[in-house]
Design goal:
Length: 331
Amino acid sequence: MPSLERAPGMSTPKVFVTREYPSVGLNRLMQECETEVWPGPLPPSREVLLEKVKGCDGLLTMLSDKIDAELFDAAGSQLKVVSQYAVGVHNIDLEQAHNRAIAVGNTPGVLTDATADIAFALLISSARRMIEAHEAIQAGKWKTWEPLGYIGWDLVGKTIGIVGMGRIGYAMAKRCRGGWDMNVIYTSRHNKPDAEQNLQARRVEFDELLAESDFISVHTDLNAETEKMFNAQAFEKMKPNAIFINTARGGIHDQPALVHALKTGQIGAAGLDVTDPEPPALSDEILHLPNCIVAPHIGSATTKTRNEMAEIATDNLLNGLQGKPLRCEVK
Ligand code: DGY
């Protein structure tokens, strides 16, 4: 666990933490740095954020903060490190950071199982219409056992299409293959020998994945290539009973196109832990469809996972302040 070795004459580094943060990480920062934590339940406004970063040597950021050239200018040239309390860094302008020699850290690895569990929970809850059934009970509609009520889909032996066979994609595929005997197909930039050997997974083209999958689960990062890759054309190519699961980033699906696909029966159901925007307006149709379950981006929300993420993010920040390689650096 790194602590701050201060060179003679080095002043206490100044750090801004943009939201409340687990004490296992925060206490160490407080000991080593002049640390300010934004106390509100919501992120600071853009204006406040630009003010707070002024003169900081390090920033501990969340995925809801936009970290771009304007923010780097506002912080000043002493800024050495941005440590993100998440694995995804779509909110950070990496090119700008690298051009300015600002190190960027993230928290991969420790949230794999927690996120795969949420993906699977969304899949089985969508397939067996759990939320719809629960809401019907709350509305007083449970009068008797219904011979034809709430009929859902089986999972065993179906085909799961994994988009992005990284750590989390693999963990989701492992659940589907090991527990439910599904066939696994996937798209990825490269072949994944582990998945092919251990899970009998088969790498396919995107269009084949769309056409053959009974369920599709998204585990890729959001970038120029993946932005809105699930658009109207993609939903049209899916099976009419297909279930679409996204626990990665909302920007990967085109939300109005997804709403249309769900309303018109182009696909069967969806389970989302991420939306676009986040959160959606209360009036957004995505929140009011019987065949769509939405969770408030809770993939990594377990005590163990969030504490481990905080340990890594704090290590990243402390290392970056000393000009050392980060524990997990985004290149
Ligand atoms: C991440 O880490 O990127 C998740 O989306 C939030 O934990």
